[in-house]
């Protein structure tokens, strides 16, 4: 199996974009469209997932905190413990969500992830 | 002008890949092929630059510490104070440079950038 990331602790931003994300039951929940990166600190803040309209969700992109993803070597893909239900209930995006600290707070709180800016 | 990143402090990993990098004299020095990201911490470690063989450099990719880049809104591109001479003298890559802490140390020391892992 050609591993995108091998066992390395380091990933390539080109390989991340388009990579599948699986749920804890082994079902594919979507794929990563792109990451958002805080420029000055060089911190990855969100992985923005897309679902290709498959689930009929009301929006095109679902940002989830990067820390909610882990890499599964055997699948050569990312795995998350976020359920479909949880994703559907997540804070809705708006055009400037990625530079809206209040929005980021709501998202990180919703997913119980420590703020990346503290 | 259609700004890739506007004035946001946050950049999109898709927009970063392929973005031009200019030197302090305003000359284009290359472009960003991809970023390397430490998976667990979500820290961007290097921007890997390419030069399309134009300069006849002895290798295809030149990783530079992310902190050596700043974003110039007026150019809608990245700017670095690294000179061509400095780039040519930088530590040469090898197949596993991105997971080789000793190599990373040499590179960060060479460019006088604080280690991202401390």
From TrEMBL, chains A, B:
Gene3D superfamilies, sorted: PRC-barrel domain
Stated name of the protein: PRC-barrel domain protein
UniProt cross-references to InterPro entries, sorted A to Z: PRC-brl_dom, PRC_barrel-like_sf
Transmembrane spans: none
Taxonomy, superkingdom: Bacteria
Signal peptide region: none
Pfam hit, one: PRC
SUPFAM superfamilies in the cross-refs: PRC-barrel domain (SSF50346)
Domain PRC-barrel: 13-87
């Amino acid at each position: 199996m050609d591993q995108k990331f091998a066992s390395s602790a380091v990933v390539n931003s080109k390989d991340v974009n388009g990579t599948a994300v699986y749920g804890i039951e082994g079902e594919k929940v979507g794929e990563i469209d792109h990451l958002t990166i805080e420029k000055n600190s060089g911190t990855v803040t969100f992985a923005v997932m897309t679902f290709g309209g498959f689930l009929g969700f009301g929006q095109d992109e679902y940002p989830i905190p990067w820390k909610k993803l882990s890499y599964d070597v055997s699948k050569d893909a990312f795995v998350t413990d976020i359920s479909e239900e949880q994703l559907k209930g997540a804070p809705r995006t708006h055009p400037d969500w990625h530079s809206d600290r209040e929005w980021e707070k709501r998202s990180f709180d919703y997913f119980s992830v420590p703020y990346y800016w503290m």
